[in-house]
């Protein structure tokens, strides 16, 4: 099975999404799924990722090779973000053959939170504060990466830290029920 992850901007998000989506698929019994992250076209931000024309372009390019498309964007504190994603899902269902799946999910509040969820965090940090902060990348991820001394690595440490986090997928799913577990459940019903 080929799974194509569509991030709002792959340049950093790819390092987080690929290992965590692979861990998610393994948890639902698909450990050999081939996970790729969309790099062409570069969407370059959530505004472009929420445009049907851009998503349709990707679906048209890869529908012959991909069984599962996953659009994953940051929520960024926007309560209505899932409504826009649901609209894209409806359009994709109409545009794709029945044997193809398209799901869209928003990470609360950014995909960096998924990475943090798989780690033991400083005792002074509250998990609820991390989940509700509209800018956890700056407030939590970057200080965490700096403390770990990995900011010079690919993706400012996202690559190595996300691999570690994916190894603790049970911890991620226990902390990220609104997004990670919701996506996992939807996938497990369809694949």
List the helices and strands and how they pair.
Layout: E1 2-7, H1 10-27, E2 34-37, H2 46-49, H3 52-62, E3 68-74, H4 81-95, E4 101-107, H5 111-117, H6 127-132, H7 136-148, H8 158-166, H9 169-175, H10 177-190
Structure characterization notes:
By secondary structure, the chain is of the alpha/beta class. It has one domain (2-182). Helices cover 54% and strands 13% of the residues. It has 10 helices and 4 strands. It has helices at residues 10-27, 46-49, 52-62, 81-95, 111-117, 127-132, 136-148, 158-166, 169-175, 177-190, and strands at residues 2-7, 34-37, 68-74, 101-107. It has a 4-stranded parallel β-sheet with strand order 2-1-3-4. Helix 1 links the parallel strand 1 and strand 2 (34-37). The longest helix is centred in the N-terminal third of the chain and has 18 residues, at 10-27. The protein is globular, with a radius of gyration of 16 Å. The N and C termini lie close together (9 Å). The relative contact order is 0.17. The mean pLDDT is 97.
Helix content: 40-55%
What is the rounded distance between the termini?
A: 9 Å
List the domain count as a whole number.
Answer: 1
Largest sheet: 4 strands, parallel
- Basic shape: globular
Subunit organisation of the chains: single chain
How large a portion of the residues is in β-strands, by DSSP E? 5-15%
| Total DSSP E strands | 4
> What value does the Rg take, in angstroms?
16 Å
Observed structural traits:
alpha/beta; 4 strands; 191 residues
Give me a quick take on this structure.
By secondary structure, the protein is an alpha/beta fold. The protein contains ten helices and four strands. The chain has helices spanning 10-27, 46-49, 52-62, 81-95, 111-117, 127-132, 136-148, 158-166, 169-175, 177-190; strands at 2-7, 34-37, 68-74, 101-107.
């Amino acid at each position: 099975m080929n799974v194509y992850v569509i991030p709002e901007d792959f340049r950093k998000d790819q390092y987080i999404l690929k290992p965590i989506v692979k861990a998610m698929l393994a948890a639902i019994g698909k450990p050999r799924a081939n996970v790729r992250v969309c790099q062409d076209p570069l969407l370059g931000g959530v505004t472009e990722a929420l445009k049907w024309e851009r998503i349709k372009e990707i679906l048209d390019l890869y529908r012959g090779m991909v069984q599962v498309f996953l659009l994953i964007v940051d929520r960024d504190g926007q309560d209505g973000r899932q409504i826009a994603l649901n609209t894209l899902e409806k359009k994709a269902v109409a545009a794709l053959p029945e044997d193809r799946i398209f799901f869209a999910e928003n990470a609360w509040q950014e995909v960096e939170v998924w990475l943090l969820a798989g780690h033991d965090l400083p005792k002074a940090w509250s998990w609820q504060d991390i989940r509700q902060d509209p800018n956890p990348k700056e407030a939590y991820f970057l200080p965490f990466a700096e403390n770990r001394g990995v900011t010079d690595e690919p993706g400012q440490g996202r690559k190595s830290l996300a691999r570690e986090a994916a190894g603790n997928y049970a911890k991620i799913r226990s902390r990220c029920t609104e997004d990670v577990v919701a996506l996992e459940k939807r996938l497990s019903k369809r694949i």
